[in-house]
């Protein structure tokens, strides 16, 4: 049975008590009811499960591991507020409870994993979207987001009728700028006359741009009012607001991370979700869990690109697949990227 937990910061006395209980063979709350089977845990990024995007993709990998590998999964939600200061305590509690691997969903977990991993050398820690913190028991699962975004740019440039398209980034970080760079390059390489409007919702250390749909909706509405008829948002949960705005205006939206056409929470807008730039976070999570279960834990950089279908462009919307000139252009661009003919930028 999967356990969903919200691990709060504990005081010194409570922490000491938990350590004492563990040392004496007692169980923490995360261990209660365990029968000693293989356990794996994921700690969600801002927005948590239900974001219809990044976190949900990680959850899908855990769910697959539970079904196919018999793993007992634990999910840890972020604490309230955008700063989420409890990452070290969250990862420590998950590792102490015997979960292996423990996976931090998102680059924001990098400092916490760097602090916690050395204390649990027999536990594998997965870090998604970051290579800045490394270690013998750290698996850095990263993706060529710029490549998938380039394909989205090709599609946007082919379908726009106004010659104006938009990009919305949740938070202006180097990771999200990879999405922007690939998208803009894909647009311009396809049709240099198309104007790309770029907007970021928040700046670090304010990470609310990943969690507030109203911000995404307002930004998208502004771009629609300025003539954009295709909007690509890389903004986590906030991107759902962008999709809503585009759909209500009967314009195209491009989703991100998960195939958002198939996300139940976005079903009302699916006919206007042209495609999505997918990251195979699900398989990355599953593969790491399987490697630990098989006794050959992954570590170091594990990169997923177009060549391994680690990133790509979803084809669930029949309206998209029926656009033969668009899909042909996308297919050619994909082949050229894999062949090295097209070099996609990782920064604007």
Describe the structure concisely for a colleague.
Its main location: membrane. With 348 residues, the chain is α/β, with parallel strands linked by helices.
Overview of the molecule:
The structure is a single chain. The protein has 11 helices and 13 strands. It is an alpha/beta fold. It has 2 domains: 3-144 and 282-306, Rossmann fold, CATH 3.40.50; 145-279 and 310-339, 3-Layer(aba) Sandwich (Rossmann fold). The chain has a 7-stranded parallel beta sheet with strand order 1-3-2-4-5-6-12, with helices on both faces. The chain has a 6-stranded mixed beta sheet with strand order 8-7-9-10-11-13, sandwiched between helices. 54% of the residues are buried. It is a lipid-anchor. Its main location: membrane.
């Amino acid at each position: 049975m999967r356990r969903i937990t919200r691990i709060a910061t504990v005081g010194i006395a409570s922490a000491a008590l938990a350590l004492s209980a563990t040392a004496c063979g007692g169980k923490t709350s995360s261990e209660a009811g365990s029968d000693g089977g293989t356990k794996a845990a994921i700690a969600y990024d801002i927005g948590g499960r239900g974001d219809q995007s990044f976190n949900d993709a990680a959850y899908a990998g855990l769910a697959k591991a539970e079904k196919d590998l018999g793993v007992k999964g634990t999910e840890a939600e972020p604490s309230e507020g955008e700063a989420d200061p409890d990452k070290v305590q969250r990862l420590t509690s998950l590792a102490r409870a015997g979960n292996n691997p423990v996976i931090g969903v998102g680059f924001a977990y990098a400092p916490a994993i760097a602090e916690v991993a050395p204390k649990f050398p027999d536990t594998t820690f997965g870090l998604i979207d970051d290579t800045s913190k490394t270690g013998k028991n750290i698996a850095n699962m990263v993706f060529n987001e710029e490549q998938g975004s380039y394909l989205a740019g090709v599609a946007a440039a082919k379908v726009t009728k106004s010659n104006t398209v938009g990009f919305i980034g949740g938070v202006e970080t180097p990771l999200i700028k990879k999405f922007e760079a690939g998208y803009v390059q894909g647009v311009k390489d396809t049709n240099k006359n198309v104007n790309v409007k770029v907007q970021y919702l928040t700046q670090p250390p304010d990470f609310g741009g990943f969690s507030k749909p109203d911000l995404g909706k307002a930004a998208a509405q502004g771009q629609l009012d300025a003539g954009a008829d295709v909007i690509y948002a890389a903004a986590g949960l906030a991107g759902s607001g962008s999709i809503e705005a585009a759909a209500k205006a009967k314009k195209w939206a491009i989703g991100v991370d998960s195939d958002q056409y198939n996300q139940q929470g976005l079903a009302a807008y699916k006919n206007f979700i042209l495609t999505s730039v997918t990251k195979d976070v699900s398989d990355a999570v599953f593969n790491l869990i399987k490697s630990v279960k098989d006794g050959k834990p992954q570590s170091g950089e594990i990169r997923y690109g177009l060549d391994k279908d680690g990133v790509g462009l979803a084809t669930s919307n029949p309206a998209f697949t029926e656009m033969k000139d668009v899909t042909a252009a996308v297919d050619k661009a994909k082949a050229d990227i894999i062949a090295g003919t097209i070099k996609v930028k990782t920064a604007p």
